[in-house]
Amino acid sequence: MSITTFVKSIQDIMRQDPGVDGDAQRISQLVWMLFLKIYDSKEEEEWELFEDKYVSIIPEGLRWRDWARPDENGQAMTGDELVDFINEKLFPTLKELEIDETTDERAALIKYVFEDVYNYMKNGTLIRQVVDVIEKIDFGSYEERHAFNDIYETILKDLQSAGNSGEYYTPRAVTEFIVAMLDPKVGETFADFACGTGGFLTCALEHMKKQPEYKLTGGEEAVFNGLIGIEKKPMPHLLAVTNLILHGVDAPKIKRDNSLEIDTRDISDEQKVDKIGMNPPFGGIEEKTVQNNFKKEFQAAETADLFMVMIMERLKENGEAGVVLPDGFLFGEGVKTRIKEKLMEKCNLHTIVRLPRGVFAPYTTIHTNLLFFKKGEPTKEIWYFEHPYPDGQKMYSKTKPIQIEEFELEKKWWDNREENQYAWKVSMEEIKEHGYNLDFKNPIKEEEEVIESPLEVLNKIQENQIQINKIIATIKEELYS
Question: Is 306 within 8 Å of 291 (Cβ atoms)?
């Protein structure tokens, strides 16, 4: 089944169900079913065959093969019987599985995934139709499993237009470029502390799979154990876990938690990592209790600011990071200035790639930047690279997204840096003179007049209003706390 046919057939069925409201719920509904199907395939095709003492944590009768497939007479649950089974037996049992420190990681995964997952569909006949479409996929086949990765990427990409859920998906071209520049090695730890749907982690995995060390004894295990993710919201957590399982990781080390709730003053060496690739949520606001996990001079309400401080603390000496941030961080003052000052004292902020408008469209049209830095040495100068639109294109969009091939410009320049029409450098002295304002424009390229469409203007107004409301809420909190 083709990518387009699979996704469209599932969406068409779900749109008929009165219980599913919007793309985000449709994706969540689809993915818990996919997760059980994929998990059952792992059990049936691998773990049960090659592990003599393997026992499933899922009770008999509740595994995918027990209820999703027709019996020997071609009969399968449907209608009200299927709805009752899912709501009154399957979900309660999986949510209440008993686990402890001795429980196998693969088994514990079931409970962690289903703790906050819901069945939105109310029509059992439509559920049966969705199940039948999913059942046609053979995850035991390498070819089909590999092809399904493209289907899954399409599903994740749909999040970009699913309301606020777009924050969980970073365009694949951006994650691939950041990972390529960080160049994680087999045996190193690679982390994303707000991992969303797991894009950075899967890119790091695929990057390390190409290295000779991966095929040596223990190489695969070293890579799997070195991938670390944290995601605080249930839907993207489920999406990320499923994403990594599809890429061959039996027990993904993706914790459902808020990374910012760790006291940054007490981070141990064991909690530090070699490489970090991240896209912190734009414009989020954190509670005072979360801010208290940071030193007084770095306490900020904005989520991305706190993540920048946390990233510095979670890196090992000589560790490297690639982080997606909006323009607001570059020119921001107050706490942002103090964070940037510390960043450039403790780390070498060697490169800022300035992306044009629309990379994250339609979720947001604001300008974003890719910051690359290495811990353990101060910044002496920053190289800037202004990423251009492809010839003939004036804006990125959902139908015309940024492509990995476009980053060949940066890759060819990266190890042999010279100033050109896209690249320039700024000294630390000049940065200090500008009060740590990092919003330096391309001095070679003349400022082009940008004529925005009415929709772009409305989007800007809406985004500004959201930020104003968040600032007002923060001020009120400070006044009444």
Answer: yes
